[in-house]
Amino acid sequence: SAGTLNCRGAKAISFDGDDDYISVADHSSLDIDGDISLSAWVYVVKELGNFQTIVSKASGCDNATSPWQMRIASDDKLEFVTGAGVGTGSTTRHSSTNALADGWNHVVITCDEDDASSVVKYYINGVLDKTQSGSWTSMHTNNNALTLGTLGPNSCYRSRIVLSDVRIYNKVLTDGGVSATQTATGEIATLYNGGS
Fold this sequence. Notes:
By secondary structure, the protein is mainly β.
């Protein structure tokens, strides 16, 4: 089972990459198919050679079943993946450099969703790493559970990482909002639906 520890005075949870993950029952507040921001404190062990899922809403090992997910790629880059539903395909975009260092990293992905002119930004430790614009697979809503530490509620892409203060917003965080999430101390996971 996943173990708990401290991160910057906040709670953190450790995943062993084998059978640990957290599943949160679906709720309408998680049906985000537009603007979204995802943030987390992640303790990274570099060069594990596999994807390390931070947060997802997939039903299984198919990226297309997750409307959105944040993960660390096998080359240690921060990735944002969108899917449009079973059998429809998915789009994967990633940060510029494999800038995630061994140890604690604060990561944020913001997506200003506007179909053909969407903009995704990647922040690593408070610094804007990359801005991407263009079109990709449209997000959808689903009834899947929200999972931390795995792509879906099975044995697919289980993570060997430590997570703290995972946050989901249904809006695009500003640079100031990104900074605020970096200095805040919260629980393991929080959903911010609307507001500032």
